[in-house]
TrEMBL record:
<feature type="binding site">
    <location>
        <begin position="224"/>
        <end position="225"/>
    </location>
    <ligand>
        <name>substrate</name>
    </ligand>
</feature>
<dbReference type="InterPro" id="IPR022896">
    <property type="entry name" value="TrioseP_Isoase_bac/euk"/>
</dbReference>
<keyword id="KW-0312">Gluconeogenesis</keyword>
<dbReference type="GO" id="GO:0004807">
    <property type="term" value="F:triose-phosphate isomerase activity"/>
</dbReference>
<dbReference type="InterPro" id="IPR020861">
    <property type="entry name" value="Triosephosphate_isomerase_AS"/>
</dbReference>
<keyword id="KW-0324">Glycolysis</keyword>
<dbReference type="Pfam" id="PF00121">
    <property type="entry name" value="TIM"/>
</dbReference>
<dbReference type="GO" id="GO:0005829">
    <property type="term" value="C:cytosol"/>
</dbReference>
<comment type="pathway">
    <text>Carbohydrate biosynthesis; gluconeogenesis.</text>
</comment>
<comment type="similarity">
    <text>Belongs to the triosephosphate isomerase family.</text>
</comment>
<dbReference type="GO" id="GO:0046166">
    <property type="term" value="P:glyceraldehyde-3-phosphate biosynthetic process"/>
</dbReference>
<dbReference type="GO" id="GO:0006096">
    <property type="term" value="P:glycolytic process"/>
</dbReference>
<comment type="subunit">
    <text>Homodimer.</text>
</comment>
<protein>
    <recommendedName>
        <fullName>Triosephosphate isomerase</fullName>
        <ecNumber>5.3.1.1</ecNumber>
    </recommendedName>
</protein>
<keyword id="KW-0963">Cytoplasm</keyword>
<feature type="active site" description="Electrophile">
    <location>
        <position position="94"/>
    </location>
</feature>
<dbReference type="GO" id="GO:0006094">
    <property type="term" value="P:gluconeogenesis"/>
</dbReference>
Length: 241
C-alpha cells in the first residue's frame, strides 16, 4: 500500500486561490511516485480542482456530506453529487464537525453508511481531547467513536481510511510524538476486524513528517495548515523515511 498524504484545506481558499494552489502543487508533485495524494478543498472549489487534476495522480475528496441522496435538505450536499463531480474520498467525523457543528457518533454512522452505499471512500476521523488524554481516557474515547461510528458496518471498514487526529494537536503546533501516534494507531488496528490504513493528523509539518512516517503503524498523514502552502505540502508528500 502506498503512503497516503491528504490535504484538508478546511474553510480556506476561494475558487481563484484554489486554482493557483493546485497549479503550483501539480508542478511541485509531478515527479512523485509511490504516494497517494488527496486534496480536500471546500465544496465551492471542488469542480475547479477536479478539472485541474483530472489527468494527474492527485485525487479529490470533500470535507463533509449529508446522508440522504437528495431531497428537501436546504444547505446540505449529497454524496451522489460529490461522486459525480469526481470525488473519490469524503472526510467524515472531523473533530471540527464534532466539536463546532455538534456532530454525534450517530450522525457520523449515518454518513459512513451513505458513503459506503455511494462508493465514496470515507476518511473517518477519531481522536481524544486534551482533557480526555490527561484523564487517561484516550482508549475509551477512541473505542466509543469506532464502535458507534461503525455500528452495523464494521465488516466493511476495509473500504474506508481511518484518521487519528488528537484534538489537542489540531492547529496547535503541538504534534503527537511518533510514538504516541503509533501507540494509538496500533490500538485502533487492534479494535478492527479488518486491515485498514490509519492516517495521523494534527500539526503535521515539513519538519516532523519524516519522523512520523518512519513509524510502521502510520500509513499516511492528514494535513491541515501546512497543506495551504504549495511548498510545504509538496515537502510533506515527498517525506523521507
Ligand atoms: P493542522 O494540520 O492544521 O493541525 O490540522 C489537522 C487537521 O485537522 C486535518 O484534518
Amino acid at each position: 500500500m502506498n503512503p497516503i498524504i491528504a490535504g484538508n484545506w478546511k474553510m480556506n481558499k476561494d475558487p481563484v486561490e484554489s486554482r493557483a494552489l493546485v497549479q503550483q502543487l501539480l508542478e511541485l508533485t509531478g515527479d512523485v511516485k509511490n504516494r497517494e495524494i488527496i486534496i480536500i478543498p471546500p465544496f465551492t472549489s471542488l469542480s475547479i480542482v477536479a478539472e485541474l487534476t483530472r489527468t494527474s495522480r492527485i485525487k479529490l475528496g470533500a470535507q463533509n456530506m449529508y446522508w440522504e441522496r437528495s431531497g428537501a435538505y436546504t444547505g446540505e450536499i449529497s454524496g451522489v453529487f460529490l461522486k459525480s463531480l469526481g470525488c473519490d474520498y469524503v472526510l467524515i467525523g472531523h473533530s471540527e464537525r464534532r466539536h463546532i457543528m455538534g456532530e454525534t457518533d450517530e450522525i457520523i454512522n449515518k454518513k459512513l453508511k451513505a458513503a459506503l452505499e455511494i462508493g465514496l471512500i470515507s476518511i473517518f476521523c477519531c481522536g481524544e481531547t486534551e482533557k480526555e488524554r490527561e484523564d487517561g481516557r484516550t482508549e475509551e474515547v477512541i473505542t466509543r467513536q469506532l464502535q458507534h461510528g461503525l455500528k452495523d458496518i464494521e465488516d466493511q471498514v476495509h473500504k474506508m481510511i481511518i484518521a487519528y487526529e488528537p484534538v489537542w494537536a489540531i492547529g496547535t503546533g503541538k504534534t503527537a510524538t511518533p510514538q504516541q501516534a503509533a501507540e494509538v494507531h496500533a490500538f485502533i488496528r487492534s479494535r478492527l476486524q479488518k486491515q485498514v490504513a490509519v492516517l495521523y493528523g494534527g500539526s503535521v509539518k515539513p519538519d516532523n513528517v519524516d519522523a512520523l512516517m518512519s513509524e510502521n503503524e502510520i500509513n499516511g498523514c492528514l494535513v491541515g495548515g501546512a497543506s495551504l502552502k504549495p511548498e510545504s505540502f509538496a515537502r510533506i508528500v515527498k517525506f523521507n523515511r
